[in-house]
Design goal:
alpha/beta; Rossmann fold; five-stranded parallel sheet; 5 strands; 7% strand
Protein backbone atom coordinates (compact mmCIF):
# COMPACT_ATOMS: atom_id res chain seq x y z
CA UNK A 1 0.00 0.00 0.00
CA UNK A 2 1.46 3.36 -1.03
CA UNK A 3 1.77 6.38 1.24
CA UNK A 4 -1.05 8.98 1.02
CA UNK A 5 1.36 11.58 -0.35
CA UNK A 6 1.31 9.87 -3.76
CA UNK A 7 -2.48 9.99 -4.20
CA UNK A 8 -2.37 13.09 -6.43
CA UNK A 9 -0.07 11.40 -8.96
CA UNK A 10 -2.79 10.08 -11.23
CA UNK A 11 -1.81 7.25 -13.58
CA UNK A 12 1.87 7.33 -12.53
CA UNK A 13 2.29 3.91 -10.91
CA UNK A 14 5.84 3.38 -12.23
CA UNK A 15 6.91 6.80 -10.99
CA UNK A 16 5.40 6.19 -7.56
CA UNK A 17 7.24 2.87 -7.35
CA UNK A 18 10.58 4.50 -8.24
CA UNK A 19 10.17 7.40 -5.82
CA UNK A 20 8.92 5.17 -3.00
CA UNK A 21 12.01 2.99 -3.39
CA UNK A 22 14.18 6.10 -3.18
CA UNK A 23 12.45 7.22 0.02
CA UNK A 24 13.11 3.76 1.42
CA UNK A 25 16.83 4.07 0.76
CA UNK A 26 17.61 3.86 -2.97
CA UNK A 27 18.42 7.55 -3.03
CA UNK A 28 20.11 9.82 -5.59
CA UNK A 29 21.11 13.41 -4.94
CA UNK A 30 19.73 14.91 -8.20
CA UNK A 31 16.54 14.09 -10.13
CA UNK A 32 15.01 15.36 -13.37
CA UNK A 33 11.21 15.10 -13.66
CA UNK A 34 9.96 15.32 -17.24
CA UNK A 35 6.60 14.88 -18.91
CA UNK A 36 4.01 16.74 -21.00
CA UNK A 37 2.18 19.79 -19.62
CA UNK A 38 -0.29 18.78 -16.93
CA UNK A 39 1.28 15.40 -16.24
CA UNK A 40 2.18 16.58 -12.74
CA UNK A 41 5.94 17.18 -12.85
CA UNK A 42 5.91 19.78 -10.08
CA UNK A 43 3.35 17.82 -8.05
CA UNK A 44 5.58 14.75 -8.25
CA UNK A 45 8.61 16.75 -7.14
CA UNK A 46 6.74 18.28 -4.20
CA UNK A 47 5.29 14.89 -3.20
CA UNK A 48 8.77 13.37 -3.34
CA UNK A 49 10.22 16.20 -1.26
CA UNK A 50 7.40 15.77 1.26
CA UNK A 51 7.97 12.03 1.51
CA UNK A 52 11.73 12.50 1.97
CA UNK A 53 11.22 14.88 4.87
CA UNK A 54 8.49 12.80 6.56
CA UNK A 55 9.55 10.19 9.12
CA UNK A 56 6.75 7.94 7.81
CA UNK A 57 7.47 8.42 4.11
CA UNK A 58 4.62 10.82 3.35
CA UNK A 59 1.79 10.45 5.82
CA UNK A 60 0.33 13.91 4.86
CA UNK A 61 -0.76 14.57 8.46
CA UNK A 62 2.45 15.26 10.45
CA UNK A 63 3.81 18.79 10.84
CA UNK A 64 6.50 18.17 8.22
CA UNK A 65 3.95 17.05 5.62
CA UNK A 66 1.53 19.86 6.40
CA UNK A 67 4.18 22.57 6.09
CA UNK A 68 5.53 20.98 2.90
CA UNK A 69 2.05 20.98 1.35
CA UNK A 70 1.58 24.61 2.38
CA UNK A 71 4.91 25.61 0.84
CA UNK A 72 6.33 26.73 4.18
CA UNK A 73 8.70 23.89 5.06
CA UNK A 74 12.04 25.54 6.00
CA UNK A 75 14.08 22.86 4.22
CA UNK A 76 12.17 22.75 0.92
CA UNK A 77 12.80 25.63 -1.47
CA UNK A 78 10.97 26.07 -4.77
CA UNK A 79 12.69 28.02 -7.53
CA UNK A 80 10.29 29.13 -10.25
CA UNK A 81 9.53 32.12 -12.43
CA UNK A 82 6.59 34.08 -13.73
CA UNK A 83 8.89 35.55 -16.38
CA UNK A 84 10.43 34.10 -19.51
CA UNK A 85 13.56 32.75 -17.82
CA UNK A 86 15.32 31.97 -14.54
CA UNK A 87 18.35 34.22 -14.29
CA UNK A 88 21.76 33.78 -12.77
CA UNK A 89 20.90 35.73 -9.58
CA UNK A 90 18.09 33.29 -8.70
CA UNK A 91 20.41 30.37 -9.46
CA UNK A 92 23.14 31.73 -7.21
CA UNK A 93 20.64 32.22 -4.38
CA UNK A 94 19.63 28.57 -4.79
CA UNK A 95 23.26 27.47 -4.70
CA UNK A 96 23.83 29.40 -1.48
CA UNK A 97 20.78 27.79 0.06
CA UNK A 98 21.85 24.33 -1.09
CA UNK A 99 25.01 24.62 1.01
CA UNK A 100 23.02 25.03 4.24
CA UNK A 101 22.44 22.17 6.65
CA UNK A 102 18.79 21.13 7.09
CA UNK A 103 17.25 23.09 9.95
CA UNK A 104 14.40 20.75 10.95
CA UNK A 105 14.11 18.18 8.18
CA UNK A 106 16.17 15.24 7.02
CA UNK A 107 17.32 16.92 3.79
CA UNK A 108 17.87 20.34 2.25
CA UNK A 109 15.71 20.06 -0.89
CA UNK A 110 15.64 22.47 -3.82
CA UNK A 111 12.94 22.17 -6.48
CA UNK A 112 13.52 23.95 -9.80
CA UNK A 113 10.05 23.98 -11.35
CA UNK A 114 11.04 25.32 -14.77
CA UNK A 115 14.52 24.00 -15.38
CA UNK A 116 13.98 24.49 -19.11
CA UNK A 117 13.80 28.25 -18.44
CA UNK A 118 17.26 28.43 -16.90
CA UNK A 119 19.52 30.77 -18.84
CA UNK A 120 22.91 29.38 -19.81
CA UNK A 121 24.53 31.45 -17.07
CA UNK A 122 22.02 30.23 -14.50
CA UNK A 123 22.50 26.60 -15.54
CA UNK A 124 26.27 26.94 -15.27
CA UNK A 125 25.86 28.48 -11.81
CA UNK A 126 23.91 25.40 -10.67
CA UNK A 127 26.17 22.84 -12.28
CA UNK A 128 28.83 22.46 -9.60
CA UNK A 129 26.28 22.23 -6.79
CA UNK A 130 24.26 19.59 -8.65
CA UNK A 131 27.40 17.63 -9.53
CA UNK A 132 28.84 17.72 -6.00
CA UNK A 133 26.05 18.71 -3.61
CA UNK A 134 26.56 19.35 0.07
CA UNK A 135 25.75 16.39 2.35
CA UNK A 136 21.98 16.06 2.79
CA UNK A 137 21.17 18.26 -0.22
CA UNK A 138 18.77 17.02 -2.92
CA UNK A 139 18.04 18.75 -6.24
CA UNK A 140 14.70 18.12 -7.99
CA UNK A 141 14.48 19.65 -11.47
CA UNK A 142 11.35 19.75 -13.64
CA UNK A 143 11.12 20.24 -17.41
CA UNK A 144 8.87 19.17 -20.30
CA UNK A 145 11.56 16.95 -21.84
CA UNK A 146 15.08 15.80 -21.04
CA UNK A 147 16.36 17.62 -24.12
CA UNK A 148 15.09 20.94 -22.72
CA UNK A 149 17.82 20.87 -20.04
CA UNK A 150 21.46 21.39 -20.98
CA UNK A 151 23.51 18.22 -21.32
CA UNK A 152 25.91 18.96 -18.47
CA UNK A 153 23.05 19.14 -15.97
CA UNK A 154 20.76 16.40 -17.25
CA UNK A 155 23.64 13.93 -17.39
CA UNK A 156 24.06 14.34 -13.62
CA UNK A 157 20.39 13.75 -12.78
CA UNK A 158 18.35 10.59 -12.46
CA UNK A 159 15.45 10.87 -14.96
CA UNK A 160 11.83 10.37 -13.97
CA UNK A 161 9.36 10.34 -16.88
CA UNK A 162 5.72 11.12 -16.16
CA UNK A 163 3.04 10.21 -18.67
CA UNK A 164 -0.18 11.93 -19.63
CA UNK A 165 -2.90 10.53 -17.34
CA UNK A 166 -6.02 9.14 -18.97
CA UNK A 167 -9.28 11.08 -18.99
CA UNK A 168 -11.11 8.41 -16.93
CA UNK A 169 -8.38 8.54 -14.27
CA UNK A 170 -8.61 12.32 -14.04
CA UNK A 171 -12.40 12.18 -13.93
CA UNK A 172 -12.24 9.72 -11.02
CA UNK A 173 -9.85 12.03 -9.16
CA UNK A 174 -12.14 15.02 -9.64
CA UNK A 175 -15.23 13.09 -8.65
CA UNK A 176 -13.87 11.08 -5.71
CA UNK A 177 -11.32 13.53 -4.26
CA UNK A 178 -12.87 16.91 -5.11
CA UNK A 179 -16.56 15.96 -4.94
CA UNK A 180 -17.32 17.24 -8.46
CA UNK A 181 -20.39 16.00 -10.31
CA UNK A 182 -19.47 12.94 -12.35
CA UNK A 183 -20.70 14.35 -15.70
CA UNK A 184 -18.92 17.67 -15.18
CA UNK A 185 -15.78 15.79 -14.14
CA UNK A 186 -15.93 13.60 -17.24
CA UNK A 187 -16.29 16.53 -19.64
CA UNK A 188 -13.59 18.55 -17.90
CA UNK A 189 -11.21 15.60 -17.94
CA UNK A 190 -11.76 14.99 -21.65
CA UNK A 191 -11.37 18.69 -22.51
CA UNK A 192 -8.18 19.02 -20.46
CA UNK A 193 -6.33 16.51 -22.69
CA UNK A 194 -4.55 15.00 -19.71
CA UNK A 195 -3.79 18.26 -17.89
CA UNK A 196 -4.92 17.70 -14.30
CA UNK A 197 -4.71 21.34 -13.24
CA UNK A 198 -6.70 22.50 -16.24
CA UNK A 199 -9.30 19.78 -15.70
CA UNK A 200 -9.74 20.91 -12.11
CA UNK A 201 -10.03 24.53 -13.20
CA UNK A 202 -12.67 23.74 -15.82
CA UNK A 203 -14.63 21.57 -13.41
CA UNK A 204 -14.67 24.16 -10.64
CA UNK A 205 -15.05 27.39 -12.62
CA UNK A 206 -18.18 28.01 -14.73
CA UNK A 207 -16.51 31.13 -16.18
CA UNK A 208 -13.62 29.01 -17.49
CA UNK A 209 -16.12 26.68 -19.14
CA UNK A 210 -17.91 29.65 -20.71
CA UNK A 211 -14.64 31.04 -22.14
CA UNK A 212 -13.78 27.64 -23.57
CA UNK A 213 -17.19 27.32 -25.22
CA UNK A 214 -16.71 30.72 -26.89
CA UNK A 215 -13.28 29.68 -28.16
CA UNK A 216 -14.60 26.44 -29.65
CA UNK A 217 -17.36 28.39 -31.41
CA UNK A 218 -14.87 30.59 -33.30
CA UNK A 219 -14.06 28.32 -36.28
CA UNK A 220 -17.76 27.81 -37.14
CA UNK A 221 -18.38 31.57 -37.11
CA UNK A 222 -15.62 32.52 -39.57
CA UNK A 223 -17.13 33.65 -42.89
CA UNK A 224 -14.57 36.12 -44.21
CA UNK A 225 -11.29 37.89 -43.55
CA UNK A 226 -12.99 40.49 -41.35
CA UNK A 227 -14.21 37.74 -39.02
CA UNK A 228 -10.66 36.37 -38.85
CA UNK A 229 -9.17 39.74 -37.92
CA UNK A 230 -11.81 40.35 -35.26
CA UNK A 231 -11.34 36.88 -33.77
CA UNK A 232 -7.56 37.34 -33.61
CA UNK A 233 -7.94 40.73 -31.96
CA UNK A 234 -10.38 39.34 -29.42
CA UNK A 235 -8.07 36.47 -28.44
CA UNK A 236 -5.12 38.84 -28.06
CA UNK A 237 -7.05 41.45 -26.07
CA UNK A 238 -8.65 38.92 -23.73
CA UNK A 239 -5.29 37.25 -23.06
CA UNK A 240 -3.71 40.63 -22.33
CA UNK A 241 -6.59 41.61 -20.05
CA UNK A 242 -6.34 38.37 -18.07
CA UNK A 243 -2.58 38.78 -17.69
CA UNK A 244 -3.04 42.40 -16.62
CA UNK A 245 -5.65 41.47 -14.04
CA UNK A 246 -3.32 38.92 -12.44
CA UNK A 247 -0.15 40.97 -12.75
CA UNK A 248 -1.48 44.28 -11.41
CA UNK A 249 -2.00 42.72 -7.97
CA UNK A 250 1.43 41.07 -7.98
CA UNK A 251 3.15 44.22 -9.26
CA UNK A 252 1.65 46.37 -6.53
CA UNK A 253 2.68 43.94 -3.81
CA UNK A 254 6.23 43.65 -5.16
CA UNK A 255 6.63 47.41 -5.49
CA UNK A 256 5.47 47.90 -1.90
CA UNK A 257 7.96 45.26 -0.77
CA UNK A 258 10.78 46.94 -2.68
CA UNK A 259 9.99 50.33 -1.16
CA UNK A 260 9.88 48.84 2.31
CA UNK A 261 13.19 47.04 1.80
CA UNK A 262 14.87 50.26 0.67
CA UNK A 263 13.11 52.51 3.17
CA UNK A 264 11.56 54.60 0.39
CA UNK A 265 8.85 57.15 1.20
CA UNK A 266 6.30 58.46 -1.30
CA UNK A 267 8.10 61.76 -1.12
CA UNK A 268 11.73 62.58 -0.52
CA UNK A 269 15.07 61.50 -1.91
CA UNK A 270 15.65 57.96 -3.08
CA UNK A 271 18.58 55.96 -1.65
CA UNK A 272 21.52 55.26 -3.94
CA UNK A 273 20.89 52.06 -5.86
CA UNK A 274 17.12 52.18 -5.57
CA UNK A 275 16.64 53.36 -9.15
CA UNK A 276 18.54 50.33 -10.44
CA UNK A 277 16.55 47.95 -8.24
CA UNK A 278 13.28 49.54 -9.42
CA UNK A 279 14.35 49.25 -13.06
CA UNK A 280 15.24 45.57 -12.63
CA UNK A 281 11.88 44.90 -10.94
CA UNK A 282 9.98 46.72 -13.69
CA UNK A 283 11.71 44.72 -16.42
CA UNK A 284 10.97 41.44 -14.65
CA UNK A 285 7.32 42.43 -14.22
CA UNK A 286 7.07 43.25 -17.93
CA UNK A 287 8.52 39.83 -18.78
CA UNK A 288 5.96 38.21 -16.48
CA UNK A 289 3.08 40.02 -18.22
CA UNK A 290 4.38 38.90 -21.57
CA UNK A 291 4.67 35.30 -20.45
CA UNK A 292 1.23 35.19 -18.84
CA UNK A 293 -0.41 36.70 -21.92
CA UNK A 294 1.45 34.26 -24.15
CA UNK A 295 0.43 31.33 -21.95
CA UNK A 296 -3.20 32.44 -22.09
CA UNK A 297 -3.06 32.57 -25.89
CA UNK A 298 -1.43 29.15 -25.97
CA UNK A 299 -4.34 27.76 -23.97
CA UNK A 300 -6.71 29.10 -26.63
CA UNK A 301 -4.61 27.50 -29.38
CA UNK A 302 -4.70 24.13 -27.63
CA UNK A 303 -8.50 24.31 -27.45
CA UNK A 304 -8.69 25.16 -31.16
CA UNK A 305 -6.27 22.34 -31.92
CA UNK A 306 -8.46 19.85 -30.06
CA UNK A 307 -11.51 21.11 -31.97
CA UNK A 308 -9.83 20.66 -35.34
CA UNK A 309 -8.66 17.21 -34.26
CA UNK A 310 -12.26 16.24 -33.55
CA UNK A 311 -13.35 17.62 -36.94
CA UNK A 312 -10.66 15.62 -38.72
CA UNK A 313 -11.59 12.45 -36.83
CA UNK A 314 -15.21 12.91 -37.92
CA UNK A 315 -14.20 13.52 -41.54
CA UNK A 316 -12.05 10.40 -41.63
CA UNK A 317 -14.54 8.25 -39.74
CA UNK A 318 -11.81 7.36 -37.27
CA UNK A 319 -14.23 6.06 -34.66
CA UNK A 320 -12.36 7.67 -31.73
CA UNK A 321 -13.96 9.48 -28.82
CA UNK A 322 -14.09 13.26 -29.34
CA UNK A 323 -12.24 15.55 -26.94
CA UNK A 324 -15.03 18.11 -27.15
CA UNK A 325 -18.17 15.99 -27.04
CA UNK A 326 -20.11 18.94 -25.63
CA UNK A 327 -19.89 20.76 -29.01
CA UNK A 328 -20.65 17.74 -31.18
CA UNK A 329 -23.06 19.75 -33.37
CA UNK A 330 -20.39 22.31 -34.29
CA UNK A 331 -17.91 19.52 -34.99
CA UNK A 332 -20.40 17.87 -37.33
CA UNK A 333 -21.10 21.21 -39.05
CA UNK A 334 -17.40 21.85 -39.69
CA UNK A 335 -16.81 18.28 -40.79
CA UNK A 336 -19.55 18.63 -43.43
CA UNK A 337 -18.52 22.13 -44.52
CA UNK A 338 -14.82 21.43 -45.16
CA UNK A 339 -12.53 18.66 -46.36
CA UNK A 340 -9.96 16.65 -44.43
CA UNK A 341 -7.22 18.44 -46.38
CA UNK A 342 -8.58 21.80 -45.24
CA UNK A 343 -8.71 20.62 -41.63
CA UNK A 344 -5.11 19.40 -41.78
CA UNK A 345 -4.18 22.86 -43.09
CA UNK A 346 -5.95 24.45 -40.10
CA UNK A 347 -4.07 22.18 -37.72
CA UNK A 348 -0.79 23.12 -39.40
CA UNK A 349 -1.72 26.79 -39.01
CA UNK A 350 -2.28 26.40 -35.28
CA UNK A 351 1.04 24.60 -34.83
CA UNK A 352 2.81 27.30 -36.85
CA UNK A 353 1.19 30.01 -34.70
CA UNK A 354 2.42 28.35 -31.51
CA UNK A 355 5.93 28.16 -32.93
CA UNK A 356 5.80 31.80 -34.01
CA UNK A 357 4.74 32.91 -30.53
CA UNK A 358 7.57 30.91 -28.98
CA UNK A 359 9.90 32.81 -31.30
CA UNK A 360 8.46 36.10 -29.94
CA UNK A 361 6.33 37.01 -32.95
CA UNK A 362 3.75 39.76 -32.44
CA UNK A 363 0.75 37.86 -31.02
CA UNK A 364 -2.01 39.60 -32.97
CA UNK A 365 -0.19 39.26 -36.29
CA UNK A 366 0.48 35.56 -35.66
CA UNK A 367 -3.16 35.01 -34.71
CA UNK A 368 -4.43 36.90 -37.78
CA UNK A 369 -2.27 34.78 -40.07
CA UNK A 370 -3.55 31.60 -38.39
CA UNK A 371 -7.19 32.61 -38.60
CA UNK A 372 -6.89 33.55 -42.27
CA UNK A 373 -5.69 30.03 -43.02
CA UNK A 374 -8.82 28.66 -41.35
CA UNK A 375 -10.74 30.01 -44.36
CA UNK A 376 -8.80 27.82 -46.77
Amino acid sequence: MTAPVWDELVGQDDVVSTLSAAVAGQMTHAWLFTGPPGSGRSNAAVAFATALQCEQGGCTTCRSCVTAAAGSHPDIAVINTDGLSIGVDAARDAVRRSALHPSVGRFQILIVEDADRLTDQAANALLKSIEEPAPGTVWLLCAPAVEDVIMTIRSRCRPVLLRTPSAPAIARLLSERDGIDAEVAHRAAAASQGHIGRARGLARDPEARRRRAEILALPVGLRGLGDCLRAAQRIDQEATARATERCDVLDEKELAGLKEAWGVEDRGRRPAGYAGALSALTKEQERRRKRMARDAIDGVLLDLLSFQRDVLAAQLGAGVDPINADVADDIATMAGRTTAEHTIGAIDAIVACREALQANAAPQLALEHMMSRFLG
